[in-house]
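Exercise: predict the fold of this chain.
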Amino acid sequence: MGIETVAPNRKGSKEFLALAEETNSKSKTRKGRRRQRKMSPVQKLYETCKEVFSFCGAGVIPPAEDIQRLSSVLDAMEPADVGLTPDLPYFRMTVARRTPVITYLHLYECEKFSMGIFCLPPSGVLPLHNHPGMTVFSKLLFGTMHIKSYDWVAGAPEKTLASANPSLVAPPGVHLAKVKVDADFTAPCKTSILYPADGGNMHCFTAVTACAVLDVLGPPYSDPDGRHCQYYLDYPFSRFPDGGVSVPEDEKEGYAWLEDIEKPEDLAVDGAKYRGPEIQEN
């Protein structure tokens, strides 16, 4: 009788332990799913950037599937996901300065990538500048922005031909570029992407209305590593007709001469604290 009593108890004990393990496993799975569901859009952006740029560096473009994955995450982002609304003081017109002040919200930066938001009031301008060796994703969160971008013309002569009129010859530090984009964009719109040598690596942002643009740079600027932000002044192609380059008449508006310049004195970019959802670094 005693044996008969003990045997069923052992079986019941094993069944209980198996049920408990199954319950714990399901509980962990549910908790994991809840954590995934609770991940904020900006946290998802951070996690995706970590994966996409993990094996990249200057001049190294992420694989096409990774570019698409990161673009999809950015495409889905909205102002509220980063704590922004159009009525914040960053987006108001000021009369104290002739050139509107731009506000930069720093989200995250490491040696592989950086994340930040430029907040532009109406008529705010981020002047023409480059992104050496970088792959850059720009997501317009709200507003209307004019983007003009260029890529260098491959094979354009570094030295111009002699001319009887020196004013018609591009001076040193002036190089030929081709217009990539020259258009207004209004949110919501697709994320724009530029590459180290394509996609409009040199660009200028002009706020038609108050707007905010979320930028992801991989890798970020770094003076010690030679990734200095260079600014440019653009001239129409007709400005230096003796530049040693022949372009059909009906295509000349698609080209420009870019001159290296120092950071414009009237450019004012103020940093402000990011107050959106916290990014959990890991």
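Check your answer against the key: Confidence is low (pLDDT under 50) at residues 1-8, 31-35, 159-166.
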